[in-house]
Amino acid sequence: MTAPTAGITAATEKAWAEANAVIPGGVNTSLRRFNPPMVFERAQGAYIWDVDGKQYVDYHAAFGPILLGHNHPQVNARVSEAMGQLDLIGAGTTRQETELAERIVKYVPSAEKVVFCNSGSEATFSAIRLARAVTGRKKLIKFQGCYHGWHDPVVMNVVTPKEFVGKKHLLSAGLGPDVDNTIVLEYNNLEAVECALKTEGQEIAAIILEPIAHNIGCVIATNEFLAGLRRLCDQYGVVYILDEVITGFRHGLGGYQSIAGVKPDLTSMGKAMANGYPISALAGRADFMDRFATRAGGDTFFAGTFNAHVYSTTASLACIDLMEDGGIHRRIFALGDRLRDGLQGILDRLGYDAQVISFGSVVVPYFLTGQIKSYTDLLRSNDPLDIAFRQAMGDRGFFMIPIAMKRNHISASHTQEDIDRTLQAADDSLSMLSKQKA
Ligand code: PMP
């Protein structure tokens, strides 16, 4: 059991010890564990409360799903209504899943057909399996710093210690031989991709990437990189998988592809699709998607007991209804800009070597200077300072997960006043830390 950090309250210590007694490490996702441990019991709008009743402005948003705000009343009302009517049949189809697929086809430029599952990992797993079925090839290109889930060919090289950059850095024991099929390349480096395709192009089934490498904060793919990958995929017959599990819905109903003007073959989505209800989707070219065995004659297995659960499809439809006029995105983008500019101003005034990078509602302070184009640039990060800043913010009631370079997310429930109070707390925290440094 992890020893609790000094200073936590008796209520947290007790709940944490009880969790650790029956759950390895007390949490159900490795990145949910950090110091000091936290135990939560309430969430509403922009706020979350721990077991001590301490309130936080939430910038974590459960790693991204919470886009409208926690426990959104209109989404919950729609789900409650559905609950009285239908739950899970596990046979045939429902009108909700058809309607949701229609909406995704309408908004996501490359989506011609759609299937639903429950997590981002299931969507990327199915994308890779489908790419292999379509091409009859096995290998995969992924990029250093991108995360695509917990399955064997992708669970590697996200946040990698310096000595492993350029090598394979597996994130788990117990993996199978499929890890050898993955080639890890530098993000935003088209020449590296071209070079790999020249030598192994005939063996490569797919290229998978996040259009913004949000798993290392906010490293944005250049439009040239995204377009260049399209060209190379066409040239070498490789399937282009855009992993929009974070960027989908959060940056726009059409995903980042509608912003960058790139058209992948397959797109995975998840997280912000349903404001916290569990659902993910894989969408793409009809001729590819029709290979799934959900269709008579399809040869690529796809199944899941809970797939397209009515609670989640209904929640996602409710979210789309609320987002359709663009107002939600305008609001969270404006708040994101306010937080980014305010934070950058404070860091500059206090003389920190730091920069704030954002896209829309995702805002990331990096404690390093110079350009950020790929993971290699982030090796200059002052991680201890980054974590100390986040902990200082937590002490002041502003929850930014205390892991270096992790994203802050703004929801439509945050107000301008929340942002301004956050900036005041950031000013206090950074002033305190710079005094400690001196
Ligand atoms: N792709 C991306 C881009 C992600 O950020 C994540 C989760 N962080 C996944 C896939 C996997 O999603 P899940 O955790 O829902 O399995």
Task: Describe this structure as you would to a colleague.
The protein folds into two domains: 38-71 and 326-437, Aspartate Aminotransferase, domain 1 (Alpha-Beta Complex), CATH 3.90.1150.10; 73-323, Type I PLP-dependent aspartate aminotransferase-like (Major domain) (Aspartate Aminotransferase, domain 2). The chain is 37% helix and 15% strand. The protein is built from 13 helices and 16 strands. It has helices spanning 10-22, 73-83, 95-107, 120-135, 190-200, 223-236, 255-260, 286-289, 310-323, 327-349, 375-378, 383-395, 416-437; strands at residues 40-44, 47-50, 55-58, 113-117, 139-143, 182-185, 204-209, 212-213, 219-220, 239-244, 266-269, 280-284, 355-359, 362-366, 398-399, 408-409. A seven-stranded mixed sheet has the order 4-12-11-10-7-5-6, with helices on both faces. A hairpin with a 2-residue loop joins β1 and β2. Bound molecules: 4'-deoxy-4'-aminopyridoxal-5'-phosphate (PMP). 4'-deoxy-4'-aminopyridoxal-5'-phosphate is lined by residues 63, 119-121, 124, 147-149, 210, 215, 243, 245-246, 270.
